[in-house]
Amino acid sequence: MSFLAAQSVTWVKVQKPTFDLVGVVLTSLGLAGVCAAIALACGIALGVGFILRRRRVPPRSWADEGLHLLEARRL
Hints:
Structural class: mainly alpha
Largest sheet: none
Order of helices and strands: HHH
Number of helices: 3
Radius of gyration: 35 Å
Low-confidence stretches: none
Helix content: over 70%
Strand content: under 5%
Number of strands: 0
């Protein structure tokens, strides 16, 4: 019983927690903006890459492919 009497409780005064709705909204809008900017940059990079890759490939002639298929059919 003396052990229980020797314990003491110390109270520490803290401020009441508050919910910062404006901070939450602004943070989430900022995060959404960063995600949108990253997606836009990736889309531009992929689009430019696809366009440049397509321009480097020599254009194919449909007549050449049709002739190739016609010759393969004769065999």
